[in-house]
Amino acid sequence: MKRIFFILITLVVSTVYCSAAMSNSRLRKESRFLTDKMAYELNLSTGQYNDVYEINYDFIDQVRDIMDEVLDGYEWALNDYYRYLDYRNDDLRWVLTAAQYHKFMDREYFFRPLFITNNTWTFRVHLVYVNHNHFYFPKPYHYKSYCGGHSHRYYHDVSFYHGRYDHPYYTGTVNVRNNRTTRRSDFGSVRIKPNTTRQPSRTSSSTRRTSSTPDDVYATPSRTSSGSSTRTSSGTRTGSSTRTSSSSTSNSRTSGTTRSSSSTTRSNSGRSTRTQSTQNNSTRSSSSVRSSSGSSTRSSSTAGGSSRTSSSSRSSSSSSRR
In sequence order, what E strands does 200-239 have? Predict the structure, then answer.
């Protein structure tokens, strides 16, 4: 009884996580959790473990944006979901051995990992492994760097993993998109809306993820284009600022040089004016000296003449008395 109660609590918590918009960190953790349990039960090699992580990542990344539309009953979203599921199962066919793939198909929580209950979608593997923080194996080597570059959409619906392993493959049918029994088992509670077979225009976030190229296998897909444009534009602004500041610096230097030249010119003009004024003052002083000397000389001459006149007068006066 306690185990059943704990499973119900776990189911409620997991549905809350999945019903909200799935973050990239949650995407990686769910991909690793599913891959870890597949590796534990199917006895995967290290190479298979890394490839299965990529395949599960691609599947969950592609369906996380359409599961709300599946819940709302849009037929195009349901068709897309099963198309992505068939892509995943086809990729796994080329990674797993025939014996491993038979075991994989016998476990519904691996073969059809998502289902809807109480109007929410969740992972079936959460009902089997209730401790979501327990892992049997370490993280894949590209746990944080893989971003979906090996999915079908980049290889014209041909599996990237075809021919990578030299072992016998499963040769049976892997498609379930047209199986009505499977649809009722997974999404039987969903009411399909009429006239919803055509998909409307996708949101900008979905467009950004879809537009990433196969070369972006180990780069963050949704930040690449925006990050590049942001860095480019900021670089342009920085260059303009640099050129502006350089021009301002040059203008400041030119203005400083002009002001220095003007100050020098004014200083030289002031010095020349003061020198000329000094020379004029000296000239006027010399003229004054000459004028004073001349006046003194003329005064002395006048005084001498007066003295001589007085002497002559006194002499003639003496002669008359005799």
Answer: none
Residue 161: both structure tokens together: 């993993």
Q: Smallest Cα–Cα separation from 117: which of 27, 38, 16?
A: 16
Closest C-alpha to 150, from 66, 223, 215: 215
Dist. CA 60–CA 72, nearest whole Å: 19
Beta bridge partners of 120: 117
Half-sphere CA count of 97, side-chain side, radius 13 A:
10
Backbone φ and ψ of 117, nearest 5°: -145, 140
Tens digit of pLDDT for each residue in 133-156? 999 999 999 999 999 989 888 888
**Residue 23 pLDDT > 80:** yes
Q: pLDDT of 76-90, one tens digit each?
A: 999 999 999 999 999
Alpha carbons 189 and 193: distance in angstroms, whole number: 13
How far apart CA 143 and CA 140 sit, in angstroms, is: 5
Report d(CA 37, CA 135) in Å as an integer. Answer: 8
Give per-residue pLDDT as tens, 89-103. Answer: 999 999 999 999 999
Alpha carbon 142 to chain centroid, angstroms:
22
Say how far apart CA 9 and CA 30 lie, in whole Å.
18
Mean pLDDT of 161-187: 90
Closest CA to 113 of 163, 166, 63: 63
C-alpha 80/C-alpha 63 separation (Å) is: 8
At residue 122, φ and ψ (nearest 5 deg) are -155, 175
